[in-house]
Amino acid sequence: MRYPLHIATDMIRWQVKNKVQGNTRFPVVLMLEPLYACNLACIGCSPERHTGDLKDRLSLEECLASVDECGAPVVSICGGEPTMYPEIVELIEGCIERRKQVILCTNGILLERFFKKARPHPRLLINVHLDGMRETHDTVCARTGVFDKAIAAIEDGIRRGYTVSTNTTVYRETEMDEIEEMLAYLTELGVQGVLLSPGYHYEALANRDHFLFLDDIHRKFKRVLQLSRSYAVGSTPLFLEFAAGLRDYPCTPWGNPTRTPLGWKGPCYLIGERHYATWDEYWNGVDWDYWETRSDPRCQNCKMHSGFEPSVVRHLGSNLRDVWTMAKFQFGPKPGGKPISSHPS
Ligand code: SF4
Q1: Owning domain of residue 267
Q2: Which pLDDT score, from 0 to 100, does residue 129 have?
Q3: Overall number of domains in the chain
C-alpha cells in the first residue's frame, strides 16, 4: 500500500458526490497558506516570503472557514513555513475533525518543537522539503546545516510514529545521480514517498536561471520515472510520464485552490494575477476555460505537480490502462531501495 487507504476512498467519495451534483470542476487539494513568513530564504522562492513577520497571518477561524468553503478532501498546509504559525496544532486538529487528510509542508527546522505539541494521526502526513543531499540542499536553502536538521527531523518523526514524506524541486542544475543517491537514502530511512516536481520559471522569482525548460524537464523526468521502479517515489506514475513528455494533459488549476493571507489566489498556485476576497468570487471569477488550455505565455514551461497531479485524477476514468497503473502504484508494494542497476529499464 502506497498511501493510507482512506485517502483513496475519500477521494473516490468526493468525486462521486461531485459527479452526482453535476459539477465538472471541483477542488481536490486545498493549498492553505496561513502565513507568508518563513525562517529561510531559499533561492527558488519568492522574496516577499522572506520575512519573519507573523502579524499578517490568517486567523485560525479564517483558515478553518476556508477549509469548509473549499470542501476539498485534502488540505496541504504550506506557506511560508507553517510550523511558525502559532496555532498550527489547532489548525491541524480542526482539519482532522472535519475528516480531511492534512499534508504539513515544512522545511523541518522547527519540527522538533512541533513534535512536542502535536500527536501522530493517520490523517496527518509530514512533508519535508529536501532539494538534494547536504551540499546542494544547504545551497538551495542559502544556509548551512538545514539538510542535517531536516534529516534529524525526518528520523525523529518516523520514530515517533508520524507518516513522513519529502518533496524535491528538480532544478536545471540538479544532477540526477544525486537525485538517485537521495532517493536511495530516503527510501532506506523509511519515508513514505518522495514527491518530485520540475522547477518552474516565472517573473516573480528572484533567480530565474535555476529553473528548467521543457527539454531539460523531459530528460530529467525520464530518469525519475526509471528511478521510481526502485525507490519510494511518491509522485504518481502518470504525473511522472507527463513530466517526462510521454503523455499530455490540460492543466487543472482549479484542482488546487490556494488560500493566502491576501485572499484566494487565482488562477493557480504559481500565478497570482489576482487575490479574491471570497471563495465565490474566486471560483466564479477565474477564467478556467482559458487557464486549462495552457496557452498563456506563463504556462509554456510549466509542468508543476500542483497543476497536473489533479489532471491525472481528472482524466483517470478515461483509460483502463491508466486505472491499472494507478491501482498498482497505490496497492502494490513500495519499492525498497534496491540498486537501479539490478532493475531492467
Ligand atoms: S500551466 Fe502551470 S502556470 Fe499555467 S495555470 Fe497551470 S499550473 Fe498555473
Answers
A1: 5-342
A2: 96
A3: 1
- Which cell is 238 given? 502518470
CATH number at residue 240: 3.20.20.70
Which atom in ligand 1 lies closest to the alpha carbon of residue 296?
Answer: 4
Q: How far, in Å, is the centroid of ligand 1 from the Cα of 268?
A: 6
CA of 315 to the centre of ligand 1 (A): 17
What are the tens digits of pLDDT across the range 143-182? Answer: 999 999 999 999 999 999 999 999 999 988 899 999 999 9
**What is the whole-number distance in angstroms between the Cα of residue 308 and the centre of ligand 1?**
8
- Own/partner long-range contacts of 272-275 (Cβ < 8 Å, ≥24 apart): 272/204
103 lines ligand 1 (CB under 6 A): no
Residues 267 and 228: beta-carbon distance below 8 Å: no
Q: Measure the CA dihedral 182/307/303/9, to 10°.
A: 50
Its pTM stands at: 0.92
Name the residue of 31, 256, 274, 291 to mutate for ligand 1: max ligand atoms within 8 A of Cβ.
291
